[in-house]
Amino acid sequence: MASNREISRLFNLYAELLLLHNKNEDLSKQLSGSAYRLRNMDEVGGLPKDELGKLFRPTIIRFIEELKMSGTIEELDELIQLTPAGLFEMMRIRGLGGKKLSILWKRAKIDTLEGLLSAAKNNELTNIPGFGLKTQQNIIHNIEAYTGNKDRFHYASVADLASMIVKALQTVLKTKLISLCGEIRRQATTVPGIEILGAIKPKELAVSAIRKFLIIQSSNNNQTNAHTLDEAPVTIYHTNTDTFYHELFLRTGNDGHVKKVLNKLKAKGTFRSEEEIYKNAKLPFVLPEMREDVGEWNFGNEKQQLVSVEDIRGVIHNHTTWSDGVDTLPNFVNACIKRGFEYTVISDHSKNAFYAGGMKEEKVLRQMAEIDRLNKQVAPFRIFKSIECDILVSGELDYSIDLLSEFDLVIVSVHQLLKMDEERATGRLIRAIEHPYTTILGHMTGRQLLIRPGYPVNYRKVIDACAANGVVIEINANPYRLDMDWSQIPYALKKGVMISVNPDAHSISEIDNIRWGVSAARKGGLTKEMTWNAMPLNSLLKWLKNKKPGKPVAGNRKTAKSLVK
User: Fold this and answer.
1) In this predicted model, what pLDDT tens digit does every residue of 465-516 receive, in sequence order?
2) CB within 8 A of 210, min separation 6: which ones?
3) Helix-strand-coil percent breakdown of the chain, rounded to 5?
4) What whole-number distance in Å separates Cα of residue 404 and Cα of residue 251?
5) Contact 385/395 with Cβ under 8 angstroms?
6) Separation between Cα atoms, residue 100 and residue 199, nearest integer Å
7) Using an 8 Å Cβ cutoff, are 465 and 430 in contact?
8) 550 class by beta-carbon count within 10 Å (0-12 exposed, 13-18 middle, 19+ buried)
9) Which H/E stretch holds residue 501?
């Protein structure tokens, strides 16, 4: 049976093809909504029909049951057969949904990415209804972004697979001299594929046990090119036992890092470990993930204090069914407790994010009451009352200062009107940072890796503002964001700004995003000491007490009823 991820992918494709062929828009909406929910649910493939009935509408259940029985959806297959091949690649361009593609295909007779780019550059799209000059410029920009990124993968999507391949090769070939190398060993946020170095000969890969998980495409004495069953590219570089560690060093760090070490290397020849290479160069050993020629040279001997997943004591920035999360507040809290955390911060969307179930004031107060009840039940575990408060275009926050004062802490983020120049974007963030009730700045640039670059900001000015106002900066651990960028962490640490590794969880399973945030944070040299949610509960409570402004005196305090007006 297909996984939730695969079912979700098929449903999204089906939804877009329905719009492309001008068929059943209501069904398209059902499929899109179900696809979104599936990505944040426990696996549904093994659920009986009556259990599925509690989660989905009858039509969606029919499709899931059909996938169980035949591995496909007949109606979807028919639409695929009716669709020109080039349109599937055009679907990958940001901003081009089924409706716009239908117009391009049926009115303008454009059915390839090359044809679309050519038409846009020749100013032909502006003659098509619904495609103005701005849309045409966006299409050119998004196609160029797509073609520049299409051969890269999110690190999180291949990390476990890569480790599995290395362990399998070590087991089958009975040698430990096989390792990841390149960007994937540095745990870059996106990677070109899986790169492996091995003290092995090409002919050793031609055994059936390896062909179960690797498909060999070409091979010579220097390297073997292959791909996984999921079509992730794999490059295996061949070396020998004597040169293994030296070549592993050469193939791991970026050019700047490698050159600086080589310039200090006193001896050449056989090295028995990478540690020996750094020792010979009279440099401290640098962990693979930090070899970027950014912050590692000023890190000294603190490498053992880099933050780890095990250091994280609390789950910060989470969404529940109160806004656009898929799990109820009690269920989410219980999942945090079972994972051994000490506290969690519930930060559903504020009212401006209406598209994500943003909460109006009255709803906020009802959620706070539920949190108060739950806190009595789950003590000593602590649930913090928070909000992911939209930063409006002006830089103001989405709620009045009276309501903001009721939260234990406030996370502020930009979600709408992302097209800004650097001056405007930076000013918008700084104004929000200077609000007396801002605690954490969420996803600093709004980027989505391999999809959109985010709005431009002067990150030094933003970090300076956080330092001046005692505001924590989030590294959003969603593997499609990882925002702030790890390369900005050294400057934040220099300015004394703490970083919080936040999953931005919209489901229980996404709590585990923390792993990817920690991975990125370590690249920038984030220590346990400077990780906000590595603090134990008592320390965090003291920090919040010192940070939060004094609440209004009794005579000026607003009543709960007045807050919802």
Assistant:
1) 999 999 999 999 999 899 999 999 999 999 999 999 999 998 898 999 999 9
2) 168, 169, 172
3) 50, 10, 40
4) 50
5) no
6) 52
7) yes
8) exposed
9) strand 499-502
